[in-house]
Amino acid sequence: MPYTIPAAPAAARTPSLLHRDLQHRLDTLARTHRVPGAQLVLDTGADVVAVHTGTADAATGSPFTGQTAVPLGSLTKPYTAALVMLLADDGDLDLDEPAAEHLPELSGTPAVTVRQLLSHTAGLPTGPDSDTAAATTTTRYLTAVCTARDLLFAPGTDFSYSNAGYVAAGRLVETVTGMPWHEAVRALLLEPLGVLPAFIGDTSPVRPVAAGHAVNTATGKARPARQNLAPLEAPAGALLASALDLAAFGNALAGRSDLLPPAVAKEMRRPETAARPGALADGWGLGLALYQRDGRVWCGHDGNAQGTSCHLRVDPESGVVVAFTGNAGGATALWRDLADDLVRVTGVRVPVGSRTTDRGRPVVLPECAGTYRNGTTTYRVVPGPDGAPALSVDGDLALPLVCYADLSCDLLDPATGRPEPGGRFHRDPATGRVDRVQISGRTARRTDDG
Description:
The chain is α+β, with helices and mostly antiparallel strands. It is built from eleven helices and 20 strands. The chain has an eight-stranded antiparallel sheet, with helices on both faces. Strands 13-14-15-16-17-18-19-20 form an eight-stranded antiparallel barrel. Strands 4-7 form a two-stranded antiparallel sheet. Strand 18 and strand 19 form a beta hairpin.
């Protein structure tokens, strides 16, 4: 059944009053979290409420309007997935055929299917950092990353969030359509949605764009951040869009536009059995995170570029779409607070992450200590003085882990000391040995017990 507005005073809110209330909350929270500018769109299926606040670029003072496009980061990936799905619907490719049938660069992992690329179940590592990727070509990148030696698990058996998988998906779009990825997403998705295209790297943007920002915690001053994305990584993170643009795409994902046939949108939202994303979401479809709340399954995605935080949530059953963009790192916390406000103001319970469950009391798991690798990234779990483990990534400062009997774990936020969902360890069913760890959706394979 559709969402209902709670009893008075919320029940008496007209769209104009709802706009006023959401505008006030966005203004207030942007100041609280030191976010220069932000946008929020709530589409109830009957009404669309859009609010925005602040400054698009602290260096120029340009205003943040409803049309300002924000670097989406990984929220680009659902667009790339939708492109692949349209090609599959036209019969140009089969989701369950080996991706290497179209991409010789993937011949080192011949069992990986197109479906597995889109659902992060291919077992591919995340890929090298953007500086390294900028010094190579797409063919060399994929040939180096997509090898049997570097597979994290047998394709189709687990989940590991992978930028490399979406570099491959974008290359697949180019191979099948004969168009560069930028042109394909422009012609097949953005223009049919009525969206003016904008990409990281544009030297002459056709619309106002926002800079990401880093905020000095001591002074509170925001400074524009340079976007660092290799051109070959564009299918994984190069789009810019406004919250209104995201809401239009959200309606397509719900099957309520002419852009995606309803059967295609439904297939994107269908949970993949092997996709267990841990702290990221409750499940994963084809390019979409899935969230279970109050008997409903929402879909969407999050994205972070340098100094931005963007979020999309869609409830296909009720028709509710919520889209948010913010141009500073603190916008992630702003988004979480806004989600809490939407429950009180509208009755819409927007999921932010995976469901929290009672996992009992923390336990000490010394067997989890060791070194784990995802491509060139090294995760090291070491016991602390009290026996509790701590995690460091590529030698960075170790963060304490809180482990539970079901092998899930939380990371302790160094600023607040509060536990944040971290991920899970994995035990090999044949040997009983802990052989993998998944942190923030990325899986790493154990290499030793050191």
